[in-house]
Amino acid sequence: MAVEQVKTERRGAASKKAAKPAKVNTYVWEGTDKKGKKTSGEVNGSNPADIKAQLRKQGITPTKVTKKAKSLFGGGSKPIEPKDIAMFSRQIATMMKAGVPLVQSFEIIGNGNEKESVQKLLLGIKNDIESGNTMADSLRKYPKYFDDLFCDLVDAGEQAGALEDMLDRIATYKEKTEALKSKIKKALSYPISVVVVAVVVTSILLVKVVPQFKEIFEGFGADLPAFTLFVIGISEFMQANWYIFLFAVIGAVMVYKKILSASQEARDRQDKALLKFPVIGEILHKAAVARFSRTLATTFAAGVPLVEALNSAAGASGNALYRDAILKIRNDVTTGMQMNLSMQSTGVFPNMVVQMIGIGEESGAIDAMLSKVADIYEQEVDDAVDGLSALIEPLIMSVLGVVVGGLIVAMYLPIFQMGQAV
Asked: Rounded CA gap, 267 and 275, in Å?
């Protein structure tokens, strides 16, 4: 009995090991095709035997299969970005719509991707699905790339037998979400880049150019204008303390990032403060409404209950103020209150959005109305970002003109005065 029990335990352990998806690596191979011509290439797989089997299916007789050596400079693989997941979502949706089986779709997309990291991810999911897991369960093993909303929607599609349609909705959702994020980054990074350029140009002029003029002025033997003395004083301070200034800026940025990563309260305060900025705050308000509407429309149309859909929308809103407001709406809806009335009570959402959702609730087409709201606000964000770009371009010229022009005037003012005296 004891021997049989040990054997049973070993078989159980072996089956658990077999259920674990095999690690995917890149292999370099050499072989001959059907015509006897030598050929070579790279392919992803779990082991050399797997690679040889893949090559034989393609009519290639492998002669040499070796694991690709890692690069000395960090493995040679770029990290997986959200836009890669958005592109994968569209590709898998297109493949499934075309009637390509799920496992084969993962294999085609994985082997065809240029990024090694994406290849390993997709082929790892493929191996997991082949071992008998559902697509949703396989995706949940990679929470860094597939959030709960993504996995829940896939799970809903699999249970309803409409995975192709659900993948198409997910692809549309991811594409629009990433496009909106890109616009927000553009709106926030543009002013920051202006400030950085202005500071760098001014620092170079103060540290490198002004000292040259100072040497010339020392031979004049006359009193310098107050403006020139002021600029020279700043230049001398920068020359003596530039490293302190540089380290202070770098240190402040690092401390600020550490505080944000460690404290949810600090991140919430930053979110609420950004909403109060002129122009940028308006863009962030519209973006939060667009994300809320798009997420809620996608989840509600997928058959997710409204309370759960509001939970997902709260996390996807991207701003603490809207997150708290949506969670309040969720609590109100749980008690039986209409969503549009709860939205109005928060004082956060625009009247037009509240009224459109109210119409959607009365007509029973709330998902379609939410999609229209998302389209409207995504377009408004696009227009606002373009307007911000048009506004900042002349502002850049004005700021740099005042700074650089002021330094030039300060340096040439003594020369002008000397010319008038002569």
From this structure: 13
CA distance 36 to 293: 59
- Six token digits for residue 34: 């059907």
Query: Minimal CA–CA distance to 177: which of 82, 96, 305?
Result: 82
70, 333, 343 from 310: Cα distances, Å? 45, 9, 12
User: CA-to-CA distance for 303 and 356, rounded, in angstroms?
Assistant: 21
Q: At 239, list the tokens.
A: 């020359």
Closest to 369 measured CA to CA, from 382, 348, 381, 352: 352
Using alpha carbons, list the distances in angstroms from residue 202 to 26, 93, 216, 401, 402.
49, 51, 20, 11, 11
Q: How far apart are CA 151 and CA 174, in angstroms?
A: 13
**Site of tokens 């029990």:** 5
pTM of the model: 0.65
Classify residue 130 as left (phi > 0), alpha (psi -120 to 50) or beta: alpha
The values of phi and psi at residue 337, to 5°, are -75, 145
d(CA 246, CA 233): 18
Nearest to 300 by CA among 218, 255, 365, 344: 365
* Interatomic CA distance for residues 330 and 307, integer angstroms: 6
User: CB of 44 within 8 A of CB of 119?
Assistant: yes
Q: What is the pLDDT of residues 264-292, one digit of tens each?
A: 888 888 888 888 888 788 888 988 898 88
Query: CA nearest 169: which of 148, 141, 149, 147?
Result: 149
- Calpha distance 353→360 (Å, rounded): 11
pLDDT digits (tens, 9 = 90+) for 26-76: 777 788 877 777 777 777 677 788 778 877 877 788 888 887 665 433 444
Q: Residue 147 corresponds to which tokens in the numbers above?
A: 């959030």
**Whole-number Å distance between alpha carbons of 250 and 253:** 5
Residue 269 identity (one-letter amino acid): R
Q: How far apart are the first and last CA of the chain?
A: 116
CB atoms within 10 A of CB 222: 10
